[in-house]
């Protein structure tokens, strides 16, 4: 074995030590046995050496002990985990999501809790020069002691903590103890100690939550939100481990791509964060072998943590494959190798992934419009962001499995989304979330975790926030999916539009605090750490214009600038004129109820009515349940069954129908506004509706129910986010159809409009527009006709009797994009619309399950439901204008045609109104 072999063996093991062994003497035949003996000796020495030299990692995850202060509750608890999960798992409490248990179990967050574990340390580990005790996530305020000696405190759920504990460790058994303070009492105390009010003090009563969450750095929605319960968690929510080493420990490697426009050259900035036992000067070699790029740099380590930054220039003669958002190209990645050596001996050997892509947030003047543009250019291409907003997938983070994450993110791309905003009231998501987004090409708008509140700016708070931001930016900046940092959710708007009744005389003080936190600290820090993507101070904001106005614009919702959040529950959502023609719509939405199969496991029979105290309890948005019905009643007859259970499930259905149609109308309006300026407004380049997922089983703005079931809205999103989409709408008395194209190539398309009567499955007439050129990435009108002329030309049609179906075709008659529809009246006024008799047959063949439907008449909003059998249909909630239609079903667990058939119900609009 040569020195080289020894080195590569060690380096392949990730070892990091200078070492030497005598070279074997020249061998002769006569010493075959001694060679064998030597080899054995060599491996003994080597393994001895390995055991001494090898850095050691010891996980402290697994079963710990948990107790409250009084000692009245003692139980085993899993780490990572939280108190609620442990109590539930050990049978101390029922499912916290069941009925009113959020209120019943309020006491849990008012207690102080202690986690303890005993672990054994080996002599080898104890002999290391340095041992770090690392907590990957502590939720939240705690004292930590090891063998009775206090080693540190924590106050931020979003920070990783490490403590140097070699001297406190014993060979043999050690006791580690984490004493948590009640987050609710801690927050209240901090408020009391603060010289002035930092609003809001408490959430609205309807949220049934806890107060002063803005005084504690933990998931802000854990004290309740308008879609979520109050479960202020406590626990070790990420892993705990020991890292023992003699030379150094690599804390983090963060490569980010940089592109030099003038020289058209790529480089990779690599930050290497290392914890070293002693100061060392050496060299590090960075390479991207696939791009034949390699460079060496001096490496200087101090004792303790040092960040070294290097810029590796990529060989200009090699073609770099880019990372593209979904729909625009591949998500290419490269391996980056990092090796450090001294005197020819490798002592650091690690690998990371690097992706090449550029992001620009373009805010520039637009001809014919006051204000500034606001759109993302990725790899030089303007890209319309289509998607939604992400909230925590569970109140108890430890219960979010990788399968749940994968399923939700896959559901996002299956609905043709290319972007998600990780909303600022939740958590910085786990690594896996961003890894999946990288792979799927989902662009992430990453908020920092501040939402709907003012925040304190005292030293201790700023200090912990700075550490949080530094750590999170370093952790996430290598992900190409993250395309923007945004400082907070709605805090500029809250201040500008006075959500909290701040007296005018005090406003400057709050503005000063705002600027201190988000601009002077956070923005500065993020920009120092990461030059590879833009930073926006808030969402919504006027962006560059807000900056001009001292970071708090007079109207952060101004559609001429930045992004907009827009909610209106009382105006008719079918009327696109009620929506602001924003540059970028980062939030808008409507509530709906989840389906019965999602509610059933957390409710009882007496809860199954829209007026039950359960239905009121789960609704955390003031007047939400009535708001949904009022919006639905604008266009639909509300369910009127005399059977109370049917009335309940029909009502759940009608809220979903309302939500889907509202969000469809609004999203289509944004998408068709991408190329136009109308009355100075337009060039909309983003539509992210509120919200993708749910935290529990309750009414909310989500398109996916807790558990993963798609609501009607999510099926609609599949169509309204299609790359090529026909959008139909009326402007005064004119019917228009636009082609919205997100594809890069130019197309030539015509609209084909088929007029149907509500009373007949046979079309009344078909109209075809001329072929129109449609440039890649544009929205253009291709069909325009006065409604009266259109109806008259179609013989027996009136607004009340007919509806339009339309799609796009190219020269060769090939359809591009989905078929869409336009109602000329509210379905409740439609003449001739009958109750459809729909039969369904489930079959299984090689390609999976299919359901063949037969309808006796035109049926709007045909909804297939297989109860609690997890999976999704290929389409659902559709308008049926033909007698037959077949849809597929992707099951997420093994099932059978018989099981599906038994569970299947089919509902369409007219089933919920009428006798019975
Ligand atoms: C927005 C979000 C959330 C909220 C949603 C619905 O303001 O940022 O705070 O849940 O509206 O009200």
From TrEMBL:
Q: Which domain of life is it from?
A: Eukaryota
* Domain called Mannosidase Ig/CBM-like: residue spans: 734-829
Q: Which terms does the record give in the GO molecular function aspect?
A: beta-mannosidase activity
Which Enzyme Commission number(s) are listed?
Answer: 3.2.1.25
Which pathway, per its entry? Glycan metabolism; N-glycan degradation
- The UniProt record lists the Beta-mannosidase-like galactose-binding domain at 64-238
User: Where's it mainly located?
Assistant: other
Among the entry's GO cellular component annotations, what is one? lysosome
Q: Which reaction does it catalyse?
A: Hydrolysis of terminal, non-reducing beta-D-mannose residues in beta-D-mannosides
InterPro entries recorded: Beta-gal/glucu_dom_sf (IPR036156), Beta-mannosidase-like_N2 (IPR054593), Beta-mannosidase_GH2 (IPR050887), Beta-mannosidase_Ig (IPR041625), Galactose-bd-like_sf (IPR008979), GH (IPR017853), Glyco_hydro_2_cat (IPR006103), Ig-like_fold (IPR013783)
Residues that span the membrane, as ranges: 30-53
- Subunit architecture: Monomer.
Tell me what this protein is called.
Beta-mannosidase
Species in which this protein is naturally found: Gouania willdenowi (Blunt-snouted clingfish)
- Lineage of the organism: Eukaryota, Metazoa, Chordata, Craniata, Vertebrata
């Amino acid at each position: 074995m040569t020195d080289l072999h020894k080195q590569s063996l060690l380096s392949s093991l990730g070892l990091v030590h200078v070492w030497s062994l005598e070279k074997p003497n020249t061998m002769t035949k006569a010493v075959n046995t001694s060679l064998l003996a030597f080899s054995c000796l060599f491996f003994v020495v080597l393994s001895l050496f390995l055991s001494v030299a090898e850095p050691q990692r010891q996980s402290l995850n697994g079963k710990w002990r948990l107790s409250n202060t009084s000692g009245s509750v003692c139980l085993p608890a899993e780490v990572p985990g939280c108190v609620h999960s442990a109590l539930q798992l050990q049978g101390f409490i029922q499912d916290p999501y069941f009925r009113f248990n959020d209120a019943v179990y309020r006491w849990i967050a008012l207690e102080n809790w202690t986690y303890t574990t005993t672990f054994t340390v080996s002599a080898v580990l104890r002999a290391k020069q340095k041992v770090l005790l690392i907590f990957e996530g502590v939720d939240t305020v705690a004292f930590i002691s090891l063998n009775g000696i206090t080693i540190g405190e924590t106050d931020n759920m979003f920070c990783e903590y490490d403590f140097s504990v070699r001297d406190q460790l014993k060979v043999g058994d050690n006791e580690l103890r984490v004493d948590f303070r009640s987050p609710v009492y801690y927050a209240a105390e901090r408020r009391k100690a603060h010289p002035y009010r930092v609003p809001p003090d408490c959430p609205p009563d309807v949220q049934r939550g806890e107060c002063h969450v803005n005084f504690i750095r933990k998931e802000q929605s854990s004290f309740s939100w308008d879609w979520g319960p109050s479960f202020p968690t406590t626990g070790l929510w990420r892993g705990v481990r020991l890292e023992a080493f003699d030379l150094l420990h690599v804390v983090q490697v963060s490569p980010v791509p940089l592109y030099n426009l003038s020289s058209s050259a790529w480089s990779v900035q690599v930050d290497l964060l290392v914890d070293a036992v002693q100061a060392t000067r050496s060299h590090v070699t960075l390479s991207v072998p696939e791009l034949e790029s390699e460079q060496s740099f001096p490496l200087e380590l101090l004792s303790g943590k040092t960040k070294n930054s290097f810029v590796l220039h990529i060989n200009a003669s090699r073609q770099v494959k880019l990372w593209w958002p979904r729909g625009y190209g591949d998500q290419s990645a490269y391996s980056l190798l990092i090796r450090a050596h001294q005197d020819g001996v490798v002592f650091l050997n690690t690998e990371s992934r690097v992706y090449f892509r550029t992001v620009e947030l373009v805010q520039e003047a637009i001809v014919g419009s006051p204000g500034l543009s606001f759109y993302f250019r990725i790899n030089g291409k303007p890209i319309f962001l289509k998607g939604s907003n992400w909230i925590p997938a569970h109140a108890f983070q430890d219960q979010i499995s990788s399968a749940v994450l994968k399923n939700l993110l896959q559901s996002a791309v299956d609905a043709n989304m290319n972007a998600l905003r990780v909303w600022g009231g939740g958590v910085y998501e786990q690594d896996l979330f961003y890894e999946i987004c990288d792979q799927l090409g989902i662009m992430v708008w990453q908020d920092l975790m501040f939402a709907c509140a003012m925040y304190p700016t005292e030293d201790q708070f700023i200090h912990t926030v700075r550490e949080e931001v530094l750590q999170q930016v370093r952790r996430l900046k290598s992900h190409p999916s993250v395309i923007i940092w945004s400082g907070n959710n709605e805090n500029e708007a809250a201040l500008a539009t006075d959500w909290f009744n701040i007296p005018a005389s005090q406003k400057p003080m709050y503005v000063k605090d705002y600027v201190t936190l988000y601009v002077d600290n956070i923005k500065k820090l993020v920009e120092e750490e990461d030059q590879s993507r833009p930073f926006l101070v808030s969402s919504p904001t006027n962006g560059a214009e807000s900056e001009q106005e001292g970071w708090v614009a007079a109207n952060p919702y101004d559609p001429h600038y930045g992004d907009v959040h827009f909610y209106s529950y009382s105006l008719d959502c079918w009327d696109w004129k009620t929506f602001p023609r924003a540059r970028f719509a980062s939030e808008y939405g409507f509530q709906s109820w989840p389906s019965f199969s999602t509610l059933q496991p957390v409710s009882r029979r007496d809860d199954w009515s829209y007026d039950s105290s359960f239905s009121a309890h789960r609704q955390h948005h003031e007047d939400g349940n009535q708001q949904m019905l009022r919006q639905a009643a604008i266009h639909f007859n509300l369910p009127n069954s005399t059977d109370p259970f049917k009335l309940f499930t029909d009502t759940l259905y009608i809220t979903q129908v309302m939500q889907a149609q509202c969000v469809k109308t609004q999203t289509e309006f944004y998408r068709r506004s991408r190329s136009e300026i109308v009355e100075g407004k337009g060039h909309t380049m983003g539509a992210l509706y509120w919200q993708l997922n749910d935290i529990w089983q309750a009414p909310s703005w989500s398109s996916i129910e807790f558990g993963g079931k798609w609501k009607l809205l999510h099926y609609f999103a599949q169509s309204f986010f299609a790359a090529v989409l026909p959008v139909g709408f009326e402007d005064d008395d004119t019917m228009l159809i636009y082609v919205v194209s997100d594809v890069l190539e130019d197309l030539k398309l015509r609209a084909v409009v088929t007029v149907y009567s509500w009373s007949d499955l046979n079309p009344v007439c078909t109209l075809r527009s001329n072929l129109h050129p449609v440039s890649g990435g544009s929205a253009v009108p291709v069909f325009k006709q006065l409604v009266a002329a259109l109806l008259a030309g179609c013989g027996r049609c009136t607004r009340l009797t007919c509806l339009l179906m339309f799609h796009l075709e190219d020269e060769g008659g090939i359809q591009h994009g989905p078929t869409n529809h336009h109602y000329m009246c509210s379905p409740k006024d439609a003449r001739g619309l009958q109750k459809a008799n729909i039969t369904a047959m489930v079959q299984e063949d090689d390609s999976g399950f299919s359901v063949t439907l037969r309808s006796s008449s035109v049926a709007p909003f045909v909804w297939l439901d297989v109860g609690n059998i997890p999976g999704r249909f290929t389409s659902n909630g559709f308008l049926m204008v033909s007698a037959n239609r077949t849809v597929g079903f992707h099951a997420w667990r093994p099932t059978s045609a018989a099981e599906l058939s038994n569970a299947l119900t089919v509902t369409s609009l007219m089933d919920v109104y009428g006798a019975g």
